[in-house]
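INTERNAL AUDIT FORM
Audit reference: QA-55
Scope: verify that the stored structure record matches its stored sequence.
Auditor: D.O.
Record contents follow.
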Amino acid sequence: MVTRRGAIAFGVAAAFILSASLFAQDRKTREAQKREATAVYKILEGIDAGQPVPNDLSVEWAREDLLKAQDNKQYVPFTITLDPSKVNGRTVSLYWRVVDKTPAAPDEKADKKADSKAPAFAYEDINLAQLPGGQKGLARISRSFAVPGDSYDVYVVVKEPTPEKAPRNAPPLKVSVIKRTVEVPDLWTDELNTSSVFVAERIEPLPAPLTPEQQAERPYALGGMELTPVLDTNFDKTAELSTFLLIYNTKTDSSNKPDITIEYNFYTKAEGAEKFFNKTNPQSLNAQTLPPQFDMAAGHQLQSGQAVPLASFPAGEYRLEIKVTDKLANKSLTRNVNFTVSGS
């Protein structure tokens, strides 16, 4: 989290690029968002000029995740937390900017200069977020961006909304500005790969598809389900460890089906060493187990997950190793989830 003076350079010369979802809103909402965009840019100009980086709302970056998107991009949903008791009201303005850390090649700079409509940043958006009422503890807000594989700095501004007419002698609006560096690997290769491993509080079916505006505010809605990721992997023995991931770039047979095995192995940690604890039955995703209509050439996605009760796990530290093996390609990879179990 950024807290020191002059730590963020935003480059505020570019005009704000309004998101497509903004234009789907009513006139009053559009005007409110334009006011917020103007206010945010003034804040960033001040930081560029050397003013302190504020965090009045105790905003922190909680997590980011990774999935394939369209057009050779990666979809990155992310979550921040804030202290709702520090907000006057239940609405905040949320702005996020994604800046590519890799310098553009000279020919790319020339192309961007020639194209006055080229975006100044890899991604940029702004909208309003409603905080839940009656909630104890930190509030969470999730949003997303889509970018090619690379290294990025993500800047997030959260502030109290700018009123249409501010009362005389009104106190300054509370503002938080944070920065997070996010490494985005390229999932659009021929190499076996996966999404993030989601450790979920809940996985719920969606009764109907979301509108674009709803999807923007609920980026962990994936297809016909919605995930609520945990922000803390410390579990009580009465809980379940619920995981979910998507598997990419598998080799297929003549019917466009893969032959994948997924193993879930648990290891205990003690005094700097590990030992095997237990495992679940391996999962097989192949022509015998997948639905007959499953066709990877049609864009169907491979997914895996487990919900493991933790009642039999003694209190302590653990590592879940998820091993994905592509039998047709003779390739494998592993993903790890570290977690703790407490209670008796």
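Auditor finding: record pair retrieved intact. Residues 181 and 292 are 43 Å apart (CA to CA).
Action required: none
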